[in-house]
């Protein structure tokens, strides 16, 4: 039997990452998943992913940690020997939302390391491997998908570090798209809006109110599945000539209206 394609989804054991992994599993991918939690804690989610017939490999990894990233890529290589798709999904919000005038450098550094430096250098490590596979096989099809946020282009003055990190990830998408173009390895940005997950649980009432007041063109919360479907479409190769592009999954939040 032909080898199945393999996707690495960071933060794939819950929230948006789990929905992405689930859609990739349905599309026939084998999966490498990472997160900071232990494999035992991720167990139920991983078992559910396996129900679609995918091989599911979990490796605990803090994407902010250089050595841990290198060990992750090595572990995936050992487990599967191949990798086609990297989804940089893992991300954090600031521990507390604080006004720009008061927010700390510690929070800035923490958020930038996880949300920007981690995916930037994980992409570097994976990109070398994708190129190697493409050189060995002209039919090889790989891609990278970065999960940014509407915060890449929309200000929130009580979580500036998050906005800066996501704006940086947006530029990283374009940089890696430009760098990997000669191997025809597309790099995409998927830009979610307001999505029901643990990350938004603490601000649910605020977003319920804003949505009721008409913030969105499509007047409902985004669900993790909305993002999962978009990423799966890219991973299947359905937008092959659109490298560097942003795919908004935001219910029309970014649409300007009078
Ligand atoms: P979530 O429910 O809080 O889940 C975060 C995921 O990231 C978890 O799987 C977590 O795994 C993983 N993670 C966190 N820090 C990590 C680290 N240092 N190393 C490795 N994995 C780490 O968040 P979510 O809402 O699903 O968000 C997923 C992505 O979508 C993030 O990049 C977020 O910025 C973005 N996003 C979310 C929304 C939204 O409204 N929810 C909107 C726009 C963009 P562990 O628990 O194992 O650490």
Q: What this model shows, in words?
A:
The protein is 44% helix and 14% strand. By secondary structure, it is an alpha/beta fold. The protein has one domain (6-249): 3-Layer(aba) Sandwich (Rossmann fold), CATH 3.40.50.720. The termini are far apart. The chain binds NADP nicotinamide-adenine-dinucleotide phosphate.
Summarize the structure.
With 258 residues, this protein is of the alpha/beta class. It is built from eight helices and seven strands; from the N terminus they run E-H-E-H-E-H-E-H-E-H-E-H-H-H-E.
Q: Secondary-structure map with pairings?
A:
Blueprint: E1 6-10, H1 15-26, E2 30-35, H2 43-50, E3 56-60, H3 66-80, E4 85-88, H4 105-136, E5 143-147, H5 160-180, E6 187-192, H6 198-201, H7 204-212, H8 224-235, E7 246-249
Parallel strand pairs: 1-2, 1-4, 2-3, 4-5, 5-6, 6-7
């Amino acid at each position: 039997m032909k080898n199945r394609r393999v996707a690495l989804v960071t933060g794939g054991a819950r929230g948006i990452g789990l929905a992405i992994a689930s859609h990739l599993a349905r599309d026939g991918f084998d999966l490498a998943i990472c997160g900071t939690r232990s494999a035992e804690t991720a167990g139920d989610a991983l078992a559910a992913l396996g129900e679609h017939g995918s091989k599911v490999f979990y490796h605990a990894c803090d994407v902010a940690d250089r050595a841990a990233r290198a060990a992750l890529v090595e572990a995936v290589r050992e487990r599967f020997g191949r990798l086609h798709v990297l989804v940089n999904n893992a991300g954090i919000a600031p521990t507390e939302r604080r006004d720009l005038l008061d927010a700390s450098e510690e929070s800035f550094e923490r958020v930038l390391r996880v949300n920007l430096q981690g995916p930037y250098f994980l992409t570097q490590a994976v990109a070398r491997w994708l190129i190697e596979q493409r050189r060995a096989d002209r039919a090889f099809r790989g891609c990278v998908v970065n999960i940014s946020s509407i915060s890449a282009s929309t200000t929130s003055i009580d979580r500036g570090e998050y906005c800066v990190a996501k704006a940086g990830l947006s530029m990283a998408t374009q940089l890696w798209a430009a760098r990997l173009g000669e191997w025809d390895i597309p790099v995409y940005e998927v830009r979610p809006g307001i999505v029901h997950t643990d990350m938004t649980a603490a601000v649910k009432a605020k977003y319920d109110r804003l949505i009721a007041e008409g913030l969105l063109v499509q007047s409902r919360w985004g669900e993790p599945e909305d993002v999962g479907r978009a990423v799966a479409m890219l991973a299947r190769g359905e937008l092959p000539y659109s490298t560097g592009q942003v795919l908004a999954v935001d219910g029309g939040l970014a649409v300007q209206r009078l």
